Amino acid sequence: MSELLLPASYLLITGASSGIGRKLAVRLSQQHRLILNGRDQDRLAETLKLCYQPERHLSFAYDLADVDTLADSLATFLVKNGVVVGGLVHCAALLNVLPLRSITLSHAQSVMNVNMFAAMELTRVLLRKPVNHRALRAIVFISSIASQFGAKGFSAYCASKAALDGLMRALAIELAPHVRVNSVLPGGVRTPMTDAMYADPAVSDRLTRDYPLGVGLPSDIADAVQFLLSDQARWITGHQLVVDGGRSANISA
Question: Is 157 in the active site?
Fold first, then answer.
């Protein structure tokens, strides 16, 4: 297909209905046409209203825990709307703090589905020439410093983020030189997903004390993602960009 006849190119952001994903959507809507993904159509609509020129963007309401039909659903969506995806930011994540003895296989599978397998399936669809016309150029996975360190009650989450970073490194090699693939590893960021932890004063005080630059904001993560998607990062792939206010360097914590 001639380049002049290619469908319009969009940036797909998962987990766009709240927290870091919503902040990413609002920030990146100024430079990109977006496809916003989340489970709740109403919350996606709220995000859309906050974006620059909302009429330019699309919503793809889908629960990423259902990975079995994800590929077909996304492919159908792209073809129906006559668009292609030039960039993917996988921000959706599932976090439930539970000790290992309380984790069921079903729970662990759901965490892996949302946090890692969905990223794999989305990428696989975007590599299909008949669906995405080789438009994909950059991928950023929102991982976590939990992929590098352990914490009580985080076994499923840590495992899923470590798997996501492993996927990132493999894809960075497999998809080069046409697609760059990187991860951003946030530390403690105040979002709806982490509000329950910060609601405990003891936990909140400890987390604040352990971060030399204080607890992060969603905008700090948006800055990193914006850079990795830009041409300024043209020679960066297979990289884990830690954005944690110095937490992982603090051996006194």
Answer: yes
